[in-house]
Design goal:
One of its GO terms (molecular function) is calcium ion binding. By secondary structure, this protein is mostly helical. The chain has helices at 12-23, 30-39, 42-56, 60-67, 70-80, 83-94, 102-111, 114-128, 132-139, 142-152, 164-177, 186-195, 198-212, 216-223, 226-240, 242-254, 261-271, 276-287, 291-298, 301-311. 72% of the residues lie in helices and 0% in strands.
């Protein structure tokens, strides 16, 4: 369940007028901008942008970019990005120019459903006239690249009846490929973690623990390293629980010195209508504080106000 839902009664023109007034002339009334944009869902924001253009012949996003600055601007502009293009846009920017942002590739491809991945590939082709897989293969290498390609095929087995014999077999194969071997057979991890159904893999992880005495995450941690390790761990965590994975992602984006604002914004915006409530619950359960408290402590100004409104309540 998300924290942002359709606002009712909704009046796109009234919102467009309020936003124009907030940004017109000297100074900007940020409070109005953030209140409107965080309390409307994405479909409604698109209607507001359309009304804004109809009434004033101006582009709402361009106006936001010229009137706002810094992280607050990034957050408001992200909220305006149409849902269907959000992930494709993030991936495009992760593989553009010097240096690839592996963190973004990992987060999106590990956490999205096969259907979402197929959709991302299609939108990428339409919007950027380029093949996402080719772009990613051109910027990555090794087993990290192979697992990304497997995930991009979006051919994970659908959930169905779990065959205990196959569960046992996969658990044994993983055990032999990692703990029992001098060196690691990464390919076995990639195939099994990248193609088996979610319900099957959850049983495999339990069985793996029984056979080896280790959580599969501990083995991955010991036997692999670098980008491959991070991607394998993200896949395992998402198989176990997508909301728990994002709770952890948010936690580490704010923990310690400095904040990874790009990740904080990307997750808060992209999950706000999907499962941010579930993420909040996992956060509270796993980190002994609420997401609300952590955002409160770690951010400031209009940026903080907007994030807290997206977050919704404080799970004390």
């Amino acid at each position: 369940i998300g924290t942002v839902t359709a606002f009712s009664p909704f009046d796109a023109r009234a919102d467009a007028e309020a936003l124009r007034k907030a940004m017109k002339g000297m100074g900007t009334d940020e409070e109005t901008v953030l209140k409107i944009l965080t309390s409307r869902n994405n479909a409604q924001r698109q209607e507001i942008a359309s009304a804004f253009k109809t009434l004033f012949g101006r582009d709402l996003v361009d106006d936001l970019k010229s009137e706002l600055t810094g992280k607050f601007e990034t957050l408001m502009v992200s909220l305006m990005r149409p849902t269907y293009i959000f992930d494709a846009h993030a991936l495009k920017h992760a593989i553009k120019g010097a240096g690839t942002n592996e963190k973004v590739l990992t987060e999106i491809l590990a956490s999205r459903t096969p259907e979402e991945v197929r959709n991302i590939k299609q939108v990428y082709l339409q919007e950027y006239e380029a093949n996402l897989e080719d772009k990613i293969t051109g910027e990555t290498s090794g087993y990290f690249q192979r697992l990304l390609v497997v995930l991009l095929q979006a051919n994970r087995d659908p959930d169905g009846r779990v065959d205990e014999g196959l569960v046992e077999q996969d658990a044994q194969v993983l055990f032999r490929a990692g703990e029992l071997k001098w060196g690691t057979d990464e390919e076995k991890f990639i195939t099994i973690l990248g193609t088996r159904s979610v319900s099957h893999l959850r049983r495999v992880f339990d069985k793996y623990m029984t056979i080896s005495g280790f959580q599969i995450e501990e083995t991955i941690d010991r036997e692999t390293s670098g980008d491959l390790e991070k991607l394998l761990l993200a896949v395992v965590k998402c198989i176990r629980s997508v909301p728990a994975y994002f709770a952890e992602t948010l936690y580490y984006s704010m923990k310690g010195a400095g904040t990874d604002d790009d990740t904080l914004i990307r997750v808060m915006v992209s999950r706000s209508e999907i499962d941010l409530l579930d993420i909040r619950q996992e956060f509270r359960k796993n980190f002994a504080k609420s997401l609300h408290q952590m955002i409160q402590k770690d951010t400031s100004g209009d940026y903080r106000k907007a994030l807290l409104l997206l977050c919704g309540g404080d799970d004390e």
